[in-house]
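Record 1 of the preview.
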Amino acid sequence: MKAEFVVVGGGSGGCAVAGRLAEAGRDVVLLEAGPDYGPVDSGRWPAEFLDARAMPVTSHDWGYTADRWRFERARIIGGCSSHNGAIAAVGQRQEYDDWKVPGWSGNDVAPVFQRVLQRMRVRAYERTEAGPFHERCLQAAESLGWTIASDLCDLDAGDSFGLETVNVVGATRWNAAFAYLDPVRDRLRIVDEAIVATFDWGEHGVKVTVLRRGEPVTIEAGTLVLAAGAYGSPALLERSGIGNPAALVDAGVTCRKNLMGVGANLQDHPMVHADRAVGPQLQQWLDAAAATGFLPEEQTLGKFTSDLSADGRYDLHVFPVCASDQTSALHGKVHVEVAVLNPASRGSVHIASGDPEQQPKISHKYLSDRAGRDLQVLRRGVKVAEQLLSHPHLASVLGDRITDMHYDAAYYETVSHYYHPAGSCAMGDTFLSVVDERARVRGVPNVRIADASIMPFITRANTNLPTVMIGERVADFLLEDTAGR
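->
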């Protein structure tokens, strides 16, 4: 099989790249490790992936684990946009300036985000849609004097609490495959159930070795675009001999290209929660609302600036979560999740061997920064969460606190991930940069990366829309750089 472009990974970034290239009439093969269930109206999609009320994160999962954590990543067309909470957020304009990468400033990405918002069918929840728990959260926030706004998709917005902006159409999670692949399925070759083992590169193209249902297949490409995510893209580079020589030696792989930053700079938003038991009256309201219509677990979210914010910009997400479904882990309790948006801690991800089926070694090192800033910012966020939960509008329908967060040990014991790995193939021009400003892998011709791994610093937002934006931006570069072919 041959193609002008081969895109590895049918997630948020990969769908955007492949869809945009196919729209432009280019010859594209999209490789996805999981199943492709077809367009949104195919009738083949498992119901849990269409239902935006909850996250089916244990279905079609890659199975990444480390220590006590399970790092859910979707192995399905659409990637994590097919199973996430559908929170649509873009971050803050200056944070893209902070990347200090030409072509990626806040002003550069703003028009790209406008395209993304349209494609992903983003809207804000209406007040009439707020479930009984989230309505009381809004009432409490208003009473506390917090700014009320649904501004997660405003690059210039500051602190606020309000109903979320979401990529939800009716009750359907509008994933990146629906947005970018469905319009061009007749012009695009999608190969599902395909694990990319390695690739070989040269001045005139790339050869990709794929295992499809256990059988090896070779695909030749003019340009290879990696969009396998913050765990998958560095792993594929390393299996192909690109990375830190010490990490490659440990995995038994011969180093062909020394790129020290591959697998380094791994980031996520560390998250803890404040909680309460659900009172009997609230449970009745939740059950009644769930029986009559659409009741998402997540509907409200706050952005807050701690007194430790060095730049005066918001550095916390504080967001309530509540479920009526008795099968949910949240049944009978509510959480107000708290996440640090600009963490100082850094981790790594590296392969354990050259076997594409073996899980990589993931080490996020949450709360490991020497100054202890991440821990202290989380403490500030929990105070905000407790303010909300203790307000009479909520306290009157809630029970006792379940988790005691008064001790540092509780933070280390309960810290979790926010489903937002990023940064492991960082973009820039330092000795640890893996890709340049046009997402080209340094010193490796005809290979680019288009996913959250290229973020030098993680966005102050859920990473789905920023990753789609990266896919759009890389597609722009590819079309510009190959114009006239």
